[in-house]
Amino acid sequence: MYNEGRCTHNNFIRILILSDRLPERLKELKDYFQEKEDFKVIGTGKNKEEVLEIAKNQDFEYLIIVGYLKNEKNYTVIEELEKMNKNFLTVQWSMIDSLIISFCLRYKIPLRFERTLPLDEFADFLMEHRNGIEA
Question: What is the average pLDDT across 3-10?
């Protein structure tokens, strides 16, 4: 589990990343966003419990799920974060196929992004959808 600590600079887009089966893709995404000045990775987790621990004392705009989650129970983190009154959007960053679409529908994940597209396009996508979060 990676936990960056509390970010107080409100201009950052703060992201939390979850993946239980693609550690190399999680690292790729974390490394990319750590280099971007408009973003702050508040932490990464490999399961629901790690993400909930990170989120307990931090705010974030996006929960990014890398690939589909091998342990489907990890998707319940979305509902648990909502119960904690967290204000965020969930984004599925993956190869878009029928399995991903079914998970997005089942767990009410509003945003999907094809991970084969350039990461710069993903950063722009997050910037564009940031206003979807109610302050």
Answer: 47
CA-to-CA distance for 62 and 14, rounded, in angstroms? 7
The predicted model scores a pTM of 0.88
Q: What is the largest CA-CA distance in the chain?
A: 39
Mean pLDDT over all residues of the chain?
90
Query: Hunting for tokens 């990461």 — which residue is that?
Result: 119
Q: Closest Cα partner for 99 from 68, 78, 66?
A: 68
Q: Taking a C-beta distance cutoff of 8 angstroms, is the pair 46, 1 a contact?
A: yes
> Element (H or E) spanning 126, and its range?
helix 119-129
**The pLDDT value given to residue 132:** 74
Contacts of 47 (CB under 8 A, 6+ apart): 18, 20, 71, 74
